[in-house]
């Protein structure tokens, strides 16, 4: 028998869009692991802490140093549980992360299952998975994000009334989905000079000229400073995508093939087990993937900012009503969010599958399967299938718990 409540040691990656040194919440969390090996380097960017078993940044068991996936393989029946074993095998089917975002992430989509299978077959080095990667992002504070396309009428209005856009991209009449696909392709395929030309013209416009989309004026120079005036991501994001400013607790769902680019903030992210991505903007030209690969795969969901939001609902898994659930329309995971005040408690009923718990605020105690562990912001735990979890807080405690149930 393995213990069911296992504290993990998780690694961070250093993508250049991450926050630097101890400014990064991901780095702070990695550094908070008691007795862990992580050494925070103030000169490095820390973008993402990965809390799972994906092989490029695998988590290990804090007390023994053993690789978590190896441990799960050896105790699969107990820890993964028979129903999830049957459905997804021994690999943890989901991957939670903490992201600390200082500047825009590449403008991206994650291919759906059939495209992922095809790309993986063609180029397994670059596309490491044959799986889809729908994801959710939950704000831990102010979170700025571009997600999905604006309603078509809004895009049409910009491209048919602003002279430089009208002239350059030639949107005629009513804009339909396929017309939008073509338009995005045109922007992404334009030369650096053409993009800079459009950028300069838009920069010269007054806020009022953008109607109810005044954020375009504010964000144009900010984005250009992060990458370059010549980056087509600036135009795709500002002119065609929804821009949302979320507050702590707000969440979005990005389906497979859904266009997105996160701009700033600290978030909890969770996705199906995959690391496939197609990038076309907010990155150097050399790192951009093929424009037609990107545009052909694009989906038009979500179709408005409101449509991208994933609303929490109350969960019957929390016995004392302190727990909500974020349930994206996919089977690999849901996420429970438990919030306790001072000297408060919650019991989370046994889940018929594996869970990963991220302590995202406060301090307290977790009890499960006879084990008692102290919990503190930044600590990460694996919880085995079929185990009830008792949570108590000191001055307050917040948990994000990703789980998979058949
Ligand atoms: Zn993504």
From TrEMBL:
<dbReference type="GO" id="GO:0008270">
    <property type="term" value="F:zinc ion binding"/>
</dbReference>
<feature type="domain" description="Phosphomannose isomerase type I catalytic">
    <location>
        <begin position="5"/>
        <end position="152"/>
    </location>
</feature>
<dbReference type="InterPro" id="IPR016305">
    <property type="entry name" value="Mannose-6-P_Isomerase"/>
</dbReference>
<dbReference type="InterPro" id="IPR046456">
    <property type="entry name" value="PMI_typeI_C"/>
</dbReference>
<dbReference type="InterPro" id="IPR046457">
    <property type="entry name" value="PMI_typeI_cat"/>
</dbReference>
<dbReference type="GO" id="GO:0004476">
    <property type="term" value="F:mannose-6-phosphate isomerase activity"/>
</dbReference>
<dbReference type="InterPro" id="IPR001250">
    <property type="entry name" value="Man6P_Isoase-1"/>
</dbReference>
<feature type="binding site">
    <location>
        <position position="260"/>
    </location>
    <ligand>
        <name>Zn(2+)</name>
    </ligand>
</feature>
<keyword id="KW-0479">Metal-binding</keyword>
<comment type="function">
    <text>Involved in the synthesis of the GDP-mannose and dolichol-phosphate-mannose required for a number of critical mannosyl transfer reactions.</text>
</comment>
<feature type="domain" description="Phosphomannose isomerase type I C-terminal">
    <location>
        <begin position="328"/>
        <end position="370"/>
    </location>
</feature>
<comment type="pathway">
    <text>Nucleotide-sugar biosynthesis; GDP-alpha-D-mannose biosynthesis; alpha-D-mannose 1-phosphate from D-fructose 6-phosphate: step 1/2.</text>
</comment>
<keyword id="KW-0413">Isomerase</keyword>
<dbReference type="Pfam" id="PF01238">
    <property type="entry name" value="PMI_typeI_C"/>
</dbReference>
<dbReference type="GO" id="GO:0009298">
    <property type="term" value="P:GDP-mannose biosynthetic process"/>
</dbReference>
<dbReference type="InterPro" id="IPR018050">
    <property type="entry name" value="Pmannose_isomerase-type1_CS"/>
</dbReference>
<keyword id="KW-0862">Zinc</keyword>
<protein>
    <recommendedName>
        <fullName>Mannose-6-phosphate isomerase</fullName>
        <ecNumber>5.3.1.8</ecNumber>
    </recommendedName>
</protein>
<dbReference type="InterPro" id="IPR011051">
    <property type="entry name" value="RmlC_Cupin_sf"/>
</dbReference>
<feature type="binding site">
    <location>
        <position position="110"/>
    </location>
    <ligand>
        <name>Zn(2+)</name>
    </ligand>
</feature>
<comment type="similarity">
    <text>Belongs to the mannose-6-phosphate isomerase type 1 family.</text>
</comment>
<dbReference type="Pfam" id="PF20511">
    <property type="entry name" value="PMI_typeI_cat"/>
</dbReference>
<dbReference type="GO" id="GO:0005975">
    <property type="term" value="P:carbohydrate metabolic process"/>
</dbReference>
<dbReference type="GO" id="GO:0005829">
    <property type="term" value="C:cytosol"/>
</dbReference>
<dbReference type="InterPro" id="IPR014710">
    <property type="entry name" value="RmlC-like_jellyroll"/>
</dbReference>
<feature type="binding site">
    <location>
        <position position="135"/>
    </location>
    <ligand>
        <name>Zn(2+)</name>
    </ligand>
</feature>
<feature type="binding site">
    <location>
        <position position="108"/>
    </location>
    <ligand>
        <name>Zn(2+)</name>
    </ligand>
</feature>
């Amino acid at each position: 028998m393995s213990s069911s409540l296992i504290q993990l040691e998780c690694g961070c990656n250093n993508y250049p869009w991450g926050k630097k040194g101890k400014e990064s919440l991901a780095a702070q969390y990695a550094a908070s692991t008691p007795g862990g090996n992580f050494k925070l380097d103030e000169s490095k960017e820390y973008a993402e802490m990965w809390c799972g078993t994906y092989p490029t940044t695998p988590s290990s068991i804090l007390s023994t140093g053993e690789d978590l996936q190896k441990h799960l393989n050896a105790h699969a029946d107990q820890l993964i549980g028979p129903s999830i074993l049957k459905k997804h095998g021994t690999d943890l089917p989901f991957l939670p992360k903490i992201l600390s975002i200082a500047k825009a992430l590449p403008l991206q989509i994650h291919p759906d299952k059939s495209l992922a299978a095809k790309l993986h077959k063609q180029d397994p080095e670059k596309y490491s998975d044959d799986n889809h990667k729908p994801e959710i992002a939950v704000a831990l504070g102010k979170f700025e994000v571009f997600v999905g396309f604006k309603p078509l009428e809004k895009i049409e209005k910009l491209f048919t009334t602003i002279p430089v856009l009208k002239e350059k991209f030639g949107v005629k009449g009513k804009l339909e989905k396929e017309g939008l696909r073509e338009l995005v392709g045109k922007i992404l395929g334009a030369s650096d000079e053409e993009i800079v030309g459009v950028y300069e013209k838009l920069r010269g416009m007054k806020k009022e000229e953008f109607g109810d989309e005044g954020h375009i004026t504010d964000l144009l120079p900010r984005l250009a400073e992060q990458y370059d005036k010549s980056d087509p991501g600036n135009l795709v994001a500002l002119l065609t995508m929804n821009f949302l400013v979320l507050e702590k607790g707000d969440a979005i769902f990005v389906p497979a093939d859904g266009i997105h680019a996160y701009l700033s903030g600290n978030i909890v992210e969770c996705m199906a087990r995959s690391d496939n991505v197609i990038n076309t903007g907010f990155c150097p030209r050399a790192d951009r993937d093929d424009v037609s690969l990107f545009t052909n795969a694009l989906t038009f969901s979500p179709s408005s900012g409101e449509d991208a939001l994933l609303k929490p609902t109350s969960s019957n898994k929390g016995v004392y009503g302190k727990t909500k659930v974020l349930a994206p329309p996919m089977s690999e995971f849901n996420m429970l969010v438990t919030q306790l005040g001072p000297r408060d408690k919650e019991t989370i009923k046994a889940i018929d599958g594996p869970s990963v718990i991220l302590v995202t605020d406060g301090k307290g105690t977790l009890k499960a399967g006879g084990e008692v562990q102290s919990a503190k912001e930044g600590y990460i735990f694996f919880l085995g299938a079929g185990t009830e979890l008792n949570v108590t807080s000191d001055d307050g405690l917040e948990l994000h718990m990703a789980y998979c149930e058949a």
